[in-house]
Amino acid sequence: MTGERPADENVVAALEVDLHDTLKYSLLGPSLTKSGQDNVDQTKVSEIIYNASKGSKFFNHEEYRDKNLTQKIERILGKKKQLEKLDLASDRRKADDCIAELELARDLSQTLVHIDCDAFYAAVEELDRPELKDVPFSVGKGVLTTCNYHARKFGCRSGMAGFVAKKLCPQLIQLPLNFDKYTSKAQEVREIIVEYDPRFESASIDEAYLNITGYCEKHDISAEDAVQQLRREVHEKTKITISAGIAANAKLAKICSNQNKPNGQFLLPSDRNAIMAFMSDLPTRKVNGIGRVFERELDAVGVKTCGDIYAYRQYLSKLFGEKSFFFLMQCYLGLGRTNVQPAEEYERKSVGTESTFRDMNDPVELRDKLRATAEELEKDMLRTKFKGRTLVLKIKLHTYEVLTRQIIPPKAVYLKEDLYNFAVPMLAKLEQDFPGMRLRLMGLRCTHLVSMKKPDTMSFFGFKRKATGPLDTGGSVPSSPQKRKADALSTDEGQWEQWPDELLFEEAERQEREDELQELETLSQEIDKRRHHGKEVVPNPTPKKGAAEDPTEDEWWDCPICMRPQATDEKAFNGHIDLCLSRQTIKDAVQETGETPTTKPLKRPSTASEKGKNNRSGAGGDPKQKRLCFG
DNA sequence: CATTTTAAT
DNA sequence: CTGCATTAAAATG
């Protein structure tokens, strides 16, 4: 395409390429590793994407982020240069010790499978409209959620903007989403895979992890044959093709399911040498937690494959942090988790909603939007039966810059009125800090959740996870035992145990205590209203690690009244509370002193405080402020 | 050092 | 040029 231009323009174009090739690579999108692109000329594709998006606000923001990343990489490289001068023997030893320890714990006894439906949404649409089979089409309007393999030949990909995809493939047909259709189809698939592992884990609507060790043993069948059979069965019964990876752990299985996509499977033998060889020349990007940013950072220091990690092991901790170091060690060794558990058994940490809309800067309109967002969140909170101790407001400016602000309301919240009322001050503060700000997205999220599930339904009351799973908080036990017949059946396999009556009693006590704490919170809010004329928000007395958590998991709790750490022993703790309450009740505090009874109030979040008004975003010389342009 | 905010997946 | 959730690192006071 450059051949048509005059020579000097070619020079300019070449310069642009040099300046922006990292950006172009980034613009290729997050799903570069996904299949169906092998025969596509990525250079040509990125050129088209680049030209299609050039000049847009989105592009400018990507450019900005790309520059930041380039700078960050320069810092990393500088640091590496420094490190090269030093003696890193101890770091190398640390890495070697880590490797030795990990190696010792390597578990090759399990057979894990990752299955992934091929172009799932598109496949479901094709079932309804077979004529789509021979033409390129995508599902999703503004952004492609997925597209069929015809479209992929043109460079179209999930996550790509619709208009960009149209540039790559003008014939592309874009279908709207039919989420219900995909959900029910996914359910059909799940009904089949549950026979292979009753405790399979849904990773998303079209992905699942299975542990088929038991199945293979029971049916005296090889893993490969079992998966072959599973895939055939799924195809016969649902007309959906799936790809699968078979390996010793979840990380490897996930990588393997991509190897022979679509409609294929790949087995990585559970053999240390085979695994090491497999990882040795595997590009880092193929690993699940490594995306385009980390890939570039690793590439910059010389790590292109998982095998390369070893040679740089003495640098990684200092360059990327302890967690990344540990993660990379596991990548090098091809290690991953071998346990698989139903997704419902994972403890939820937040509930939130967000939406994108046409640019908006009218304060009244913004408040309307906030109210609507609060209403949406209330629905989700009621559905999931949670309250949140922390409320997070997220906005995206018209420039695509994202900002979040959070507060700790005086009580756990979930009602739309509360959500709105406690969020409005954050919005107001943002409007103050960024006068005339224009938004394209608004979101609300509750974190530090408190369950509202009452432990009074047999659906969960009689059972408790035995393993040290996240379910130890009585409230977050899965509420949907109806479909997983295995849950009820596997009691004798040691997966579940009946709660002893004693524990049941303690659970009831725990619930009572939680309710008490809730009352305290409400009262302390009352105090606060009187003290601050309803204007300000004061933190609630909260046990250090959250009142809803199982005390046996913590070393100690803060007494919500005197704030002193207390033993986790329930009797002792309750005894102390009684004492504390009798000595100094909340109501006394209100009537006599007007002070909250907490001798050591929790720190107030800056967003809700007066002294927070001069924090960085408001400061005149803040580079962030300059960067933002409001029209 | 604890908490808040950002950034990445 | 989505939406939802989780996690880690950076920034902040």
From TrEMBL:
One of its GO terms (biological process) is DNA repair. One of its GO terms (molecular function) is damaged DNA binding. One of its GO terms (cellular component) is nucleus. PROSITE patterns: UMUC. Residues 471-493, 525-554, 590-631 are annotated as: Disordered. InterPro entries: DNA/RNA_pol_sf, DNA_pol_Y-fam_lit_finger_sf, DNA_pol_Y-fam_little_finger, DNA_polymerase-Y, DNApol_IV, Rev_trsase/Diguanyl_cyclase, UmuC. Residues 112-291 form the UmuC domain. Pfam families: IMS, IMS_C. This is DNA polymerase kappa. It comes from Amylocarpus encephaloides. The lineage of its organism: Eukaryota, Fungi, Dikarya, Ascomycota, Pezizomycotina.
